[in-house]
Design goal:
alpha+beta, three-stranded antiparallel sheet, 39% helix, 23% strand, elongated
């Protein structure tokens, strides 16, 4: 199941800038809106993977994983 996130975007002069509303620190800047959305997807995937790895390292060695739905 894919998760859904909200991209907040705006054009500022010749640039498109955007943020992922639900994940602080995920933001990008590109020349086109299409490139911006691609960059936001890539950056979001990387941030989520980094956060997963960081959480597992912090909880290791005897951790469990639970699925939460909000």
């Amino acid at each position: 199941m894919a998760n859904t996130y909200t991209a907040v975007t705006k054009q500022d002069g010749d640039w498109w800038i955007g943020w992922i509303e639900e994940v602080p620190g995920v933001n990008c800047q590109e020349r086109t809106k299409e490139n911006l959305l691609d960059s936001l997807r890539t950056t979001l995937k990387e941030a989520l993977e980094f956060n997963r790895e960081d959480a597992i390292k912090a909880a290791a060695p005897d951790y469990t994983e639970e699925t939460l739905t909000v």
